[in-house]
Amino acid sequence: MPKMKTHSGAKKRFRKTATGKLRGRRAYSSHILEKKSAKRKRKMARPVEISPNDAPTVRALLGGGKKR
User: Fold this and answer.
1) Which of 1, 2, 22 lies closest to 13 in space, CA to CA?
2) Into how many domains does the chain fold?
3) Which pTM value belongs to this model?
4) Which of 11, 30, 40, 59 has the most C-beta neighbours closer than 10 Å?
5) Per-residue pLDDT of the chain (68 residues; tens, 9 = 90+)
């Protein structure tokens, strides 16, 4: 069997931390920013941990295989 390739889109959007957690950009942070408060926009600028429900999918796309 050939090796699985890393999903190109996923590797640009997600990062695995040293402890194995997954981080990515927050949703709703790229447009229609006028009506959002400054506090909300500041919080959106920082990466956030991926939801536990989405983590297995993202891990597979990044070629993580088993949970480490």
Assistant:
1) 22
2) 1
3) 0.75
4) 59
5) 888 899 999 999 999 999 999 999 998 999 999 999 999 999 999 999 999 999 999 999 998 665 55
User: How far is CA 29 from each of CA 5, 41, 66, rounded to the nearest angstrom?
Assistant: 29, 7, 31
Tokens of 62: 């990044």
Strand order in the sheet with 48-49: 14-16, 22-24, 48-49
Do the beta carbons of residue 19 and residue 67 sit within 8 Å? no
Can you name the residues that pair with 22 across neighbouring β-strands?
16
Collect all residues with Cβ–Cβ distance below 8 Å to 15 and sequence separation of at least 6: 22, 23, 24, 47
CATH code for position 48: 4.10.410.60
